[in-house]
Amino acid sequence: MSEEAEPRESRATAFTTLAAGPDFRHELEVRRSRFITVIRRTGDEESARALVAGLRKEFYDARHHCSAFVLGPDRDIQRSSDDGEPSGTAGIPMLEALIRRETAPGVTDLSDISAVVVRYFGGILLGAGGLVRAYSDSVSSALDLAPLVRSSRLRICSIEVPHSAAGKLENDLRSAGYVMAETGYGADNTVLRIALPDHADELERAAEGLAAMTAGTAVLRRGETEWIDVPF
């Protein structure tokens, strides 16, 4: 019996995505046609396709529900659909608006994101070039306004201290700029958790900083990695 392959760890350590919360919506009008863009954070193909299915029901009388999505830290899943528009005039321009989006100078790392553009035809033909611009601009304009965050792969490290010392140490850690994760409580001790970049030098620096804060009485214990949202 062959052994099941271990899942490959992502090469990426961070990517940009939509902030957690409701779908983001934005509307453009181009020569009487309405282009309603809906952007959702999606972690898999099932949820991306669920967005399209839901909008087909909500906007049941619209002519087109074109879509594009990019998934995974390495952006290795990319799909698009023209949904009845001339081939290459809707889905691909939408997908390119997602994958070519600069989230920082020279950085294109938008992922785990789906975009659907619902079109109500206004009676005026736009032509192939006009459609490409309209669908691309619809997604780009929505991204200009959408709340984006940085999702980073961080190492969750724990620090066990007496309850009486936890409050001060947490304040010191926050003041030093550390990202705090969920705090745990035991009978005698508090377990503070901090999220650190998964690099040996960063972990060593944090251990040294903790030793200085606590006069060597607290120990940094390394745990698993998690993807955590970090605001820009």
Based on the model shown, name its key terms:
five-stranded antiparallel β-sheet, disordered N terminus, about 230 residues, 5 helices
Beta-strand fraction estimate:
25-35%
Q: In whole angstroms, how far apart are the ends? A: 48 Å
Order of helices and strands: EEEHEEHEHEHEEEHE
Biggest sheet, in brief?
A: 6 strands, antiparallel
* Structural class label: alpha+beta
Number of strands: 11
- Mean pLDDT across all residues, rounded? 93
Global outline: elongated
What fraction, in percent, of the residue positions are helical? 25-40%
Multimerization state: single chain
Unreliable stretches: 1-7
* Backbone CA Rg: 23 Å
- What is the count of DSSP helices, taking H or I runs of 4+ residues? 5
Quick synopsis:
This protein has 232 residues and is of the alpha+beta class. Helices cover 30% and strands 34% of the residues.
Model description:
This protein is α+β, with helices and mostly antiparallel strands. Helix content is 30%, strand content 34%. The protein has helices at 45-58, 91-99, 127-145, 163-175, 200-214, and strands at 14-18, 24-30, 33-41, 64-71, 77-81, 113-120, 148-162, 179-180, 184-185, 189-197, 221-230. The protein starts with 13 loop residues before the first strand and ends with a strand.
